[in-house]
Specification:
The strands form nine sheets. Strands 13-20-19-16-15-14-21 form a seven-stranded mixed β-sheet. The termini are far apart. With 715 residues, it is an alpha+beta fold. The N terminus is likely disordered. It is built from 17 helices and 33 strands.
Length: 715
Amino acid sequence: MAKKGGKAKGRMNKNMLVEMLVEMFNRNEGRTMSPKEIFKELNLTSTSARTLCVHILDEMVFDGYLMEPEFRKYVLANNVSMLYGTFSRNRDGYNEFYPEDGSEPVLVSERNSAHALTDDMVRVALFARRRGRGREGEVVEIVKRVHDTFVGELHVEKHYAFLITESRIMPNDIFIPKDMLKGGKNGDKAVVKLLEWPLDSKNPVGKVIDVLGKSGDNDTEMNAILAEFGLPYKYPEAVEIAASKLPSDITPEEIASREDFRNVTTITIDPADAKDFDDALSIRNAGNNCWEIGVHIADVSHYVTEGSIIDKEAFKRATSIYLVDRTIPMLPEHLCNFLCSLRPNEEKLTYSVIFTMNDKAEVKKFRITRSVINSDRRFSYEEVQEIIEKGEGEYFEEISTLNMLAQKIRIKRFQGGAIDFQQPEVHFRLDDKGKPLSVYFSETNESHQLIEEFMLLANRTVAEKIGRKAPGGPNPKTFVYRIHDEPNMEKISMLAKFVSKLGYKMRSASGRTTSASALNGLLKDVHGTKEQNVIEQISLRAMQKARYSTGNIGHYGLAFRFYTHFTSPIRRYPDLLVHRLLNRYLTQEARSVSQQKYEDFCDHCSAQEQVAANAERASIKYKQVEFMSEHIGDEYDAVISGVTEWGFYAEINENKCEGMVPIRTLQDDYYEFDDANYCLIGRRTKRKFTIGDPVRIKIVRANLDRKQLDFELME
């Protein structure tokens, strides 16, 4: 073997050179070397030896012995043969591990998974790489179980029990010793905590921590959905008690420290069944064809002090959750429905943005102030819409003026590039036991738009007040923004290709403004068509998700350079943070808060918002399946809403309930999945099933546990 400075004797062969390279890299562990350095280290002078060396280096990288952090730079890979990251379980047993360093995923077979579950943080040891195969490895340590509680149905035997779960995270039933049932009986839905999962055991061992009730009962199933997503389904008694002790009286000193709007005409407009009214509008003539419009928001920060037991629980929840039949509030009921709710004919503490506007809805000036109000009338959206349409009713002059201004603000907003998504919301009429009797949809009308535009204006104004840097002034202080990034242009291009196959054209979308214009044009073209809902859903999926951040990049969907959430502190924790920061910056001229601390707050609130949205969708899906379970055998007109290799999804026109037509039930031909054209194609007949196609289907199965409907295609 040639040493540094020496020369290999005789003809160099591959085995000799492999041995030399192994010895050299072991001796230089941690050092990254170029081929030139390697040639010099091994004293390789001939072209043939150098060519063979480069070939071997490539093989050693492929085998995982070496790493190539940069092109043609090599380092010993011993230090990365053990990786840390996230585990993802697949039903077919071919699981994947995603390294934290962002390198390519690693295949982990079931026998090498050490019972790791989806989202678990694990350490994986890499195997030697096989030619033509991706990286493979085995889990050697589960560092953190991300999910350790599961929801399912108890199957109780004489001496033991199992929890049967439909969770995609947990692949096996959970064994429960008889003395850990906590009173649970056969057929009960329960929450079970994982205790252990021995490597030589097929089933994990757990204990019941809560019995939710009998499967199929409405309360049981709704609480099961909340528990499945790790969300609270009851309020801690200690927090309720703390809230009940908060004083309801407003002292004269407190009123004197605020701007007084008690004698200004003020109204609230909310859903008919709402109990927490967190926003109100006031209006009075300001002269010179101008109006003073007040956007008054419940001053939750007056009652919920930072670090209190109430505040800690509110932060943990971060948002109220709206299931089909109930609201899981962020704040205790005494706060959200009484103390902070802007109920009519009661003095209430508020945080307000006061606008002076002319008849063109141009804001001439504004101020942000703490205030006190006394709402004159509580309106539902339906009542206000009737007043707008009939041109008469209580507070007609005030409502018609507010509506006139709101519509002008709205027109300017869309002219500025805002995207006009108008997805109807699914609702159910339920009996007293929570059983769905019918499905209906709510769509926005002028009464909704009236409130929406003034809330958007207030949110934008507050964000601009703190976030806009004055010429020559200091940098803006840390603040909580609601941001929405631009869509990925590749996704927009794919959307354009998709809709073109359905007969729609989407104009070229090369920049922020043009892509918004192209989307609005598309949404306008499909309005009222059978493909409207499908195309709107796919367009939404092409968008980025809005989130909270201290780093302001603007809000793409609203076309706002500055935007925050200020208007709903009863139900959103970020709004409460915004109120506190406003009070700090506007009244105390205090130093900026820690950006990292508030970015962590933002990340938590964004994550909780997404979890709550998933739970809300699951409750809707459950009720849709429950509703359709009464219609097994019935036929409906539907439209294809999705296509996969195992069949196509169809959405019923009259109620938007979605189910699947499995490919195995299409008996007239052998169908193949064409993912490029979003369709199934018959090999012999060339018959196509494409997104947006009308179909006639029959309900054949409703699986409540899986929240799944199966359809059969009717010719």
